[in-house]
Amino acid sequence: xxxxxxAGAKSQSGSTTKKSFGKTPDGQPxxxxxxxxxxxxxxxITNYGGAVVSLKxxxxxxxxxxxxxxxxxxxxxxxDKSYFGALVGRYGNRIGHAxxxxxxxxxxxxxxxxENSLHxxxxxxxxxxxxxxxxxxxxxxxxxxxxxxxxxxxxxxGNLKVTVTYTWTDANALKIEYSATTxxxxxxxxxxxxxxxxxGQGSGDILGHLMTIEADKFTPVDSGLIPTGELRDxxxxxxxFRNSTAIGARISQDDEQxxxxxxxxxxxxxxxxxxxxxxxxxxVVEPTSGRVLEVWTTEPGVQFYTGNFLxxxxxxxxGATYPKRSAFCLETQHFPDSPxxxxxxxxxxxxxxxxxxxxxxxxxxxx
Length: 367
Ligand code: BGC
Known about the structure:
By secondary structure, this protein is mostly beta strands. Helices cover 3% and strands 40% of the residues. The protein contains 2 helices and 28 strands. The strands form 7 sheets. It has a 9-stranded antiparallel β-sheet, with no helix packed on it. The protein has a 6-stranded antiparallel β-sheet with strand order 1-2-3-4-5-6, with no helix packed on it. A hairpin with a 5-residue loop joins β23 and β24 (291-297). The radius of gyration is 19 Å and the shape is globular. The model is unreliable at 7-11 (pLDDT under 50). The structure holds beta-D-glucopyranose. Beta-D-glucopyranose binds at residues 82-83, 93, 119, 225, 265, 303, 305, 309, 331.
């Protein structure tokens, strides 16, 4: 293990260490970085897929628990099909019929989810080894990850230079800053795919977690989970999380959209004011531990996914198993299938422009 900080007198809070996380099947080494803040709360991240491997935060009595699903070693991430903790790109979520048109040219992607493309394709950013650099900041520890996605990779145009900076602050917040530039017009939609269980990973289902989502509308989907294009009012539907409601309170209702998703697996249209600053997207409370998660973002949407496809077969951390609905995701994003939906906010990136979004997961506890 290498202690990267405190490096001399400069570091004022916490520490970062690095250790080997093993090798990819083609022999590339990957590392695990453990970022600990001044309270002793910690996040560990691997540069394989940029995945958040563990996140230990206190309950109302100060007791730490690991609140994200994951694997003990790199092999789990190499074989993973659920995107545990990963950085997702070049296009997070689905693109209908695995194709899109940009400036009159049709781009064809791999169909890795029925007829559609999901989460960047067969070998998305979650299967790449990223270049890592650690930085010690005044109020936290940072890990900067970069990756060059080559022109034509997974069918997308343009050499895309991506940098994602994770900062673990002394206020128990995980700030994720995404930036990218391209040399050819392309589409970009980056997110993080952490699966949370605020009672602790491997501790059962998340149906009792209380959820609030700052959205008046959501994007209903077809049977392939591609948005129909409609922005539907949440009012009067099981998708109304404007007031804190248990995730499980309505999940089994006889509702067409819940049936199509096998539960919640939908993009919510965030009630955010225009501008580049982050606004609150969602707030989750786990009543037994008192742990609270707030998600803040500059993005217009969030995919609320209740782990409907988890089947308990993955070998989780420390022998944990992860059955259906044992975690939830809040993937901040532009809307699914935006490249084919002219009415949705644009995901196009031109040469000379800079893609830049910020999402922060803030942890606390209430009595
Ligand atoms: C999707 C789910 C999918 C999961 C894992 C989520 O973002 O909406 O349908 O099963 O990712 O791939």
